[in-house]
Design goal:
There is one protein chain. This protein has seven helices and seven strands. With about 250 residues, it is an alpha/beta fold. The chain has a seven-stranded parallel beta sheet, sandwiched between helices. Strand 1 (about 15), helix 1 (about 25-35) and strand 2 form a beta-alpha-beta unit. The longest helix is centred in the middle third of the chain and has 29 residues, at about 110-140. It starts with 13 loop residues before the first strand and ends in a 6-residue tail after the last strand. The relative contact order is 0.14.
């Protein structure tokens, strides 16, 4: 238990998060920033949301947030994003690979561009970001957290490429835990129904998905953010693990 005069648990830590401007990523940013962390918020095209979030955080604690735009599919994106974080804050303590593309790819209709996009954002970019950030993370004895998915284990119908990419990300999480230990911990979070796709979803399908959870309700982005905070501040002996935040749907 912390006392009122204790420093925030993540004070002076630097969190680099991809896709941090909106939705679950933005909630993770707010919760970790509230615990004292400084944040480098990556975005691709959500400039308005990213800058608004940065301004809110800097009003609360001046100089605690910055933003940087990269297309993570570009060959130099990982090096560019890590360099921007180091220029702004001088260190990286936590890397959160949250950015993802998600859409249907029925077999027989998949294009090479779709394959490259889904594998690139969900698997290739997290690997090369981890590689680029590893020197600073090693110095800080830091943490990598990958946002995985229940569909890394159970494929989603009409989404084979996405499911393949997330399965690769689950193995990447475990592989990096071996490769980067003992100095860097690497874990994953696999959210269940905490936020519906932006394109909308049929109400009957929502009810079906919720019925498959043990808790019979959907979660919230805050549930994912709280799991992230646990990994960041209360789990020094946890690595190579993927925590399901899914209301028991995975069982």
């Amino acid at each position: 238990m912390t006392k009122d005069n204790d420093p925030p648990p993540l004070q002076n830590r630097l969190v680099l998060i991809t896709g941090g401007a909106r939705r679950v990523g933005a909630e993770i940013v707010r919760v970790l920033h509230g615990a004292g962390a400084n944040v480098m918020i990556h975005y691709r095209s959500s400039a308005g949301a990213a800058n608004a979030l940065m301004d809110d955080l800097n009003r609360a604690r001046p100089g605690s947030a910055a933003v940087h735009s990269e297309n993570l599919l570009d060959p130099d994106a990982a090096d560019g994003l890590v360099a921007a974080a180091l220029r702004a804050f001088g260190r990286i303590d936590i890397l959160i690979n949250n950015a993802s593309t998600f859409y249907a790819t029925p077999v027989g209709e998949v294009t090479l561009a779709q394959w490259d996009d889904l594998l690139g954002s969900n698997l290739k970019a997290p690997f090369f970001l981890a590689q680029a950030a590893a020197p600073s993370l090693r110095t800080q004895r830091g943490l990598i957290v990958n946002i995985v998915d229940i569909h890394a284990l159970r494929p989603l119908k009409r989404h084979p490429v996405y499911s393949i990419a997330k399965a690769g990300l689950a193995m990447l999480t475990r592989s990096l835990a071996r490769e980067l230990g003992p100095d860097i911990r690497v874990n994953g979070i696999a959210p269940g129904p905490v936020l519906w796709p932006e394109g909308g979803i049929d109400e009957a399908l929502k009810r079906e998905i919720i019925a498959k959870t043990a808790l019979k309700r959907h979660g919230t982005p805050q549930d994912v953010a709280r799991a992230m905070l646990f990994l960041a501040k209360d789990a020094p002996y946890v690595t190579g693990q993927i925590i399901a935040v899914d209301g028991g749907r995975s069982i």
